[in-house]
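STRUCTURE:
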């Protein structure tokens, strides 16, 4: 997917919208435009790798499920994450070590005032997921689909 920074499906939220579990030991980071763009480019590259791994595992699970439940009407595509279909929220922050991070939130449909407030759901399958990236180390953390690792 060619990601555009002017994409209408993207919002950058303030530190106050970061989930509490990250905010406890973190501090706000307000990156300059160039730092933000380079950080997001790295995060997007890491995101594509993480989603590829997730989709591969989902495909394997689907084959196994269908072998045990041949009468099921599930479609394999119901289980995959297709990044170009998601709305995105980015929240930049500094972790407890002062490293630059992004927490990213994804969902299939706009919810409420999503450009100002973090979307949080209790159910939704692959229609909702979040992931964190440490831009300084190039590592991802907490890839949660529908709130589950």
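SEQUENCE:
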């Amino acid at each position: 997917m060619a990601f555009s920074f002017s994409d209408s499906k993207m919002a950058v939220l303030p530190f106050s919208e970061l989930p509490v579990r990250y905010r406890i030991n973190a501090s706000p980071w307000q990156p300059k435009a160039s730092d933000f763009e380079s950080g997001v480019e790295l995060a997007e590259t890491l995101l594509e790798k993480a989603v590829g791994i997730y989709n591969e595992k989902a495909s394997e699970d689907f084959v196994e499920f269908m072998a045990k439940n041949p009468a099921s009407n599930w479609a394999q595509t119901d289980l995959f994450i297709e990044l170009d279909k998601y709305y995105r929220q980015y929240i930049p922050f500094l972790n407890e070590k002062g490293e630059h991070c992004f927490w990213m939130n994804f969902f299939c449909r706009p919810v409420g005032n999503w450009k100002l407030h973090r979307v949080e759901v209790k159910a939704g399958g692959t229609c909702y997921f979040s992931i964190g990236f440490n831009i300084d180390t190039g590592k991802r953390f907490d890839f949660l689909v529908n709130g589950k690792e």
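REMARK: DSSP finds two helices and six strands in the chain.
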